[in-house]
Amino acid sequence: MPSDQLSFVPVVLCGGSGTRLWPLSRNGFPKQFLVLHGNQSLFQMAVQRLTGLSSADMHGTAPMVITNEAHRFLAADQLREINCYDQAKLLLEPEARNTAPAITLAALAAQQNGEDPVLVVSPADQVVTDRQAFTTALRTAIQCAARGAVTTLGVTPTHPETGFGYIESGSTNLDSLGGLVVRAFKEKPDAQTAAQYLAAGNYHWNSGMFVLRASVWLAAVKTFEPAIHERVHMAWAQARIDDHFVRPDPAQFVQAPSISADYAVLENCPGSDFAIEVVPLNAGWSDLGAWDAVWQLADKDGHGNATLGDTITVDTRDTLIHANHRLVGTVGVQDLVVVETADAVLIGKRSESQRVKDIVNTIASREREEHLLHRKVHRPWGWYDSIDEGEHFKVKRIMVKPGASLSLQKHHHRAEHWIVVSGHGEVTCDDKVITLGPNQSTYIPQGSIHRLANRTDEPLELIEVQSGSYLGEDDIVRFEDHYGRAGA
């Protein structure tokens, strides 16, 4: 890299559960991994936006992704799809502690070679429709941050929105490259206050994106939240690092206070020793925080309907229909959200879509599982889809990726019958190893130590029929595992 080029690190915050987009977004497959606009997931679009910022005078390094340990293979698979996995580094949180500890991890990782790059921090679950305007604003923010300013991106408001926090700006600094002085951060307002902000003209929606040097963040978090600084430093000092995954020490990391970057640092900067600026962003930004936002961004028919999947609409207006598995028909309705999945259906007013989280909370309080996993569950080796079950049986459709294998395992309470549909699988059962092709099957007795592997370069699909007194996913003892789950 030429000595006169600025160096920056794209940092993608890939946490959160996106409960307002249930039933499509769930704890095991959250919002950022969904394709809700275009043909890529929100996470993939965020990575590509940040890695596309490099220019003649600034150079971006490989992206840094902060995600939960449980989502590491989802993130890795989606990075592979956009050819970013080989260069990326994934920082794995053993437990979600909000964004301030996460960014502290990223700052420490960015400085590990004695450098002090600019961090370009973005959530993984947003949409930008004007890529060029986004790039221009972020490059301006990088230049502001390079000279020491904490720099935020403030979205130019288009209406009096009550669902976002606001940033109040002042005049441009004399030596600024385009940033405005931040006077204050404002909480989500009521409708009257939001209208006043819009009329004033110097308020911006808080995008959750910000840019600053790693050293500036570490100094600020040490000043305003020393407990986060201390615990994350200790967790980083004992981190386990391989080619792609960085695991901070869990015992130390979980003791870091769970606080957002806004509360911990940014809101404390105005009037302090840490200069803070906001760069206006007018780039078709949306955080897709609820189904109404998805409808607003989507392509619509002549009646204002946004539909995906197998749908029929009769006398229907201004409605979002998301059909995933079955035909969904509507008659004589208006301003609705209808989202159909294999195991749950959501129907509600678009204007009330923020309240979907109340359904998720109710599901959790009743100890149901529909907020945790889809019927189709992704695993590091592939996926399984539970297509039928009864009192003493369960039927799954299973796909094993090329070169992947399940753990060497046994079950105390169930037997399994495997029928290969396509591809070829290697089956280990106690002391026997066989290979099965299409229309061939085998039986795994209860208590047998077994493994299923795909040694080919084609996907393996099979039907699994379980039978036994207990069929829960926790009836598994792992002896060997390629994904770090042995003993779990």
Please, could you describe this protein's structure?
There is one protein chain. The longest helix has 16 residues, at 131-146. This protein is globular. The protein has three domains: 6-286, Spore Coat Polysaccharide Biosynthesis Protein SpsA, Chain A (Alpha-Beta Complex), CATH 3.90.550.10; 291-365, no CATH class; 376-480, Sandwich (Jelly Rolls). The chain has a six-stranded antiparallel β-sheet, with no helix packed on it. The protein contains eleven helices and 31 strands. Helix 3 packs across helix 6 and helix 6 (214-224) packs across helix 7 (226-237). 22% of the residues lie in helices and 33% in strands.
Question: Which key phrases capture this entry?
Answer:
488 residues, alpha/beta, Spore Coat Polysaccharide Biosynthesis Protein SpsA, Chain A, Jelly Rolls, 3 domains, 6-stranded antiparallel sheet, 5-stranded mixed barrel, 31 strands, 22% helix
Topology:
Elements lengths: L5 E9 L27 H10 L6 E3 L3 E5 L3 H10 L7 E5 L5 H12 L7 E6 L3 E2 L2 H16 L3 E6 L10 E7 L7 E7 L4 H10 L2 E11 H11 L1 H12 L2 E2 L3 E3 L2 H4 L7 H4 L11 E6 L3 E2 L4 H7 L8 E3 L2 E4 L5 E4 L4 E4 L4 E5 L4 E5 L6 H10 L10 E4 L2 E8 L3 E8 L7 E3 L3 E9 L2 E5 L2 E5 L4 E4 L5 E4 L6 E9 L8 E4 L8
Parallel strand pairs: 1-2, 1-3, 1-5, 3-4, 4-12, 7-13, 15-17, 16-18, 17-19
Antiparallel strand pairs: 5-10, 6-14, 7-10, 8-9, 8-10, 9-13, 11-12, 19-20, 21-22, 22-23, 23-30, 24-31, 25-28, 25-30, 26-27, 26-29
